[in-house]
Design a protein that fits this description.
There is one protein chain. The chain is an alpha/beta fold and 377 residues long. The protein has 14 helices and 13 strands. The chain has an eight-stranded mixed β-sheet with strand order 5-4-3-2-1-6-8-7, sandwiched between helices. A five-stranded mixed β-sheet has the order 11-10-9-12-13, with helices on both faces. Helix 6 crosses helix 14. The model has no long low-confidence stretch (mean pLDDT 91).
Length: 377
């Protein structure tokens, strides 16, 4: 990688509970990724730094600040100086109702983001640490927050309000927020490009299917409904999350002696494909075991496919048909059998609506980099 003119680099950062993933883009009329990597197992003795195509290097990363230092030290050996960065884009999971779009970060924005940490306790706090560190270490470089929730801020009230006492919304802002917004937005734009149509003329159903899964109804380029709700627990069957369940199950388990913390752990980390199959949260393994006759793997697979087909069918009804159903992320892109079995269930209605099936690899990092360009130009 050659050192180049000033202000041609954009860095994107995605801070998780125990990791930071990064991508370095160069912009010369077009964005091109030059390097990707991550620091994993932050806070553990076994933390390591790994670049795409490279080996794992053991590093000292007791916290997210130290992990960011590892990344910046490596990157600054390849670009001229921090001033070569045009901007840094940060994935922020939760922006509440406050942020309806990506935003250039200042102290006021950071303070507001902190207020939503209780709604995304695993993701917002590390993102805040990384943003603060970047503002301190890269003082002259603009920082941009790109929110998972902002794409879904166009969902109408009839779709985001829960049938609870209304005061819970006004007092505690309990409502459907939706997640994976950056991915849903990227594949919406890419679908329009592939179909050769203006995004404002399209009706789409976008399916982000990975370890976390969500589905979104998109009308004229805007999200009008989505499966994840107040938290990323609602909706589709996921790797370890249950998705939709009868809330009374929580009371029932509590009456059987389970503590609330245990129930939360079960619903978030011990359910979904893992919980039903008893084998794995990885659809590839579940499919493999199903092929060898494992009954519980078969049940897990069928529940996953059925729930997905049911949501797609519902969104086809809400939209009055759709130009395309888009599959993306790990399962969506690579598990052909899932797509084919969903299509078998829905084939009559898909044919009637003239709905195409598209497989589009997601690229959240590129979407974040584009947002940095859009806001800073």
């Amino acid at each position: 990688m050659k050192k180049s003119d000033l202000k041609t680099w954009i860095l994107t950062l995605n801070a998780g509970s125990s990791s930071i993933k990064y991508s370095l883009f160069q912009y010369k009329g077009k964005l091109r990724v030059e390097e990707k990597g991550m620091v994993e197992k932050i806070g553990e003795e076994s933390s390591y730094f790994e670049k795409s195509g490279g080996r794992k290097i053991k590093v000292k990363a007791r916290n997210h600040g130290q992990a960011l230092g590892v990344i910046l030290k490596d990157l600054l050996g390849k670009i001229d100086s921090p001033s070569s960065l045009y901007g840094v884009g940060h994935r922020v999971v939760h922006g509440g109702e406050k942020f309806k779009d990506s935003v250039i970060i200042n102290s006021r924005v950071l303070k507001t983001v902190k207020k939503f940490s209780h709604l995304a306790p695993l993701h917002n706090p590390p993102a805040i640490v990384v943003i603060s560190a970047c503002m301190n270490l890269l003082k002259s470089v603009p920082q941009v927050a790109v929110f998972d929730t902002s794409f879904h801020q166009t969902i109408p009230e009839r779709a985001f309000i829960y049938a609870l006492p209304y005061k819970f919304y006004t007092r505690y802002r309990i409502r459907r927020y939706g997640f994976h917004g950056t991915s849903h937005r990227y594949v919406t734009i890419e679908a329009a490009r592939r179909l050769g149509k203006d995004v404002s003329s399209l009706k789409l159903i976008t399916c982000h299917l990975g370890n976390g899964c969500s589905i979104t109804a998109v009308d004229k380029g805007k999200s009008v409904d989505t499966s994840m709700g107040f938290t990323p627990l609602e909706g589709l069957v996921m790797g370890t999350r249950c998705g939709d369940i009868d809330p009374a199950i929580i009371f029932y388990l509590a009456q059987r002696g389970y503590k609330l913390e245990e129930i939360e752990e079960i619903l978030n980390r011990k359910s979904g494909l893992l919980g039903i199959s008893g084998i794995s949260n990885d659809m590839r393994i579940v499919e493999k075991k199903m092929g060898k006759g494992n009954r519980r793997a078969k049940i897990a697979y069928e529940v996953f496919v059925y729930r997905l087909a049911k949501y797609i069918s519902a969104y086809l009804g809400i939209l009055g048909g759709a130009d395309a159903v888009v599959f993306t992320a790990g399962i969506g892109e690579h598990q052909r059998r899932v797509r084919e079995d969903v299509k078998k269930i829905l084939n009559p209605i898909l044919k009637k609506c003239g709905t195409r099936i598209l497989v589009i690899p997601t690229n959240e990092e590129l979407m974040i980099a584009k947002e940095v360009l859009r806001l800073l130009k």
